[in-house]
């Protein structure tokens, strides 16, 4: 299970052979359902643990009850398996009893209704302020000045406005009855269509407006007169989200950033840096277009991480004293 197999967690040198009914289920997974070999291997490990747990308590597998499954699931946690590995085990066990139910070998599925422990949500990946500045200042890796202007404007808008990549590529060069979004340079405002078809307006900073003006001055060299899209490809069609991801990754690599840069990372960076500077959670929520404040609160954890690093680096009481020799 994710390299930490149940058999390894239990430190068993040898395992008892699986019973015929379990082997038949594994063959069903391999042949009828055509699961990937790795998935079959993880399910097999989980079924070995299930069989060993039942044998240890003297219980036939087809007689197991929900309280048995709960106890065996708890034992997986005691052996250090994480939520994802336990979820895989429960999926394997549930599948076995479901298969046996179809063959009338059991009258109920003791795993139904049981859920694995919740895995902690990973914090969003954000660039530091210095990294974001390095990315924005990085010359675009292309000799084509039109593409360079386009890509620079994309970076500035993603980081400067916290736009989702779908909102960015949905922008039109000018407002219109069918425009999903546009930028009012005079007002310094981006009007976008976000999740759930909700419209919002966000301020556009000076650096982004300057980059946008440079792109608009050259946009006509790639876009036809009747093309509404603000950002277009070499062939003059609307730029896609995947193309933006590819270009941004290349710029991040050229800037020497230690991690793969993607559009949502710039949105995370925008939110994190705003929160670090202002502490205004509600304001950041509105700028991001989050329906729930709980979605925005994840950035307070990033902010705390930042403050913790500052404390560790600067406060005299944070530094560990060397043990006396």
From TrEMBL:
UniProt cross-references to InterPro entries, sorted A to Z: CB, DNA_brk_join_enz, Integrase-like_cat_sf, Integrase_catalytic, Integrase_recombinase_N, Integrase_SAM-like_N, Tyrosine_recombinase_XerC/XerD, Tyrosine_recombinase_XerCD
Catalytic machinery residues: 164, 195, 264, 267, 290, 299
Pfam family, one: Phage_integrase
Chief place where the protein resides: cytoplasm
Localization terms from the record: Cytoplasm
Keyword Chaperone: no
Key words of the record: Cell cycle, Cell division, Chromosome partition, Cytoplasm, DNA integration, DNA recombination, DNA-binding
Domain Core-binding (CB): 16-101
Record-annotated Tyr recombinase domain positions: 122-312
Highest taxon of source: Bacteria
Function: Site-specific tyrosine recombinase, which acts by catalyzing the cutting and rejoining of the recombining DNA molecules. The XerC-XerD complex is essential to convert dimers of the bacterial chromosome into monomers to permit their segregation at cell division. It also contributes to the segregational stability of plasmids.
Sequence similarity: Belongs to the 'phage' integrase family. XerC subfamily.
Subunit structure, as described in the record: Forms a cyclic heterotetrameric complex composed of two molecules of XerC and two molecules of XerD.
HAMAP family registered for this protein in UniProt: Recomb_XerC_XerD
UniProt name for this protein: Tyrosine recombinase XerC
Gene expressing this chain: xerC
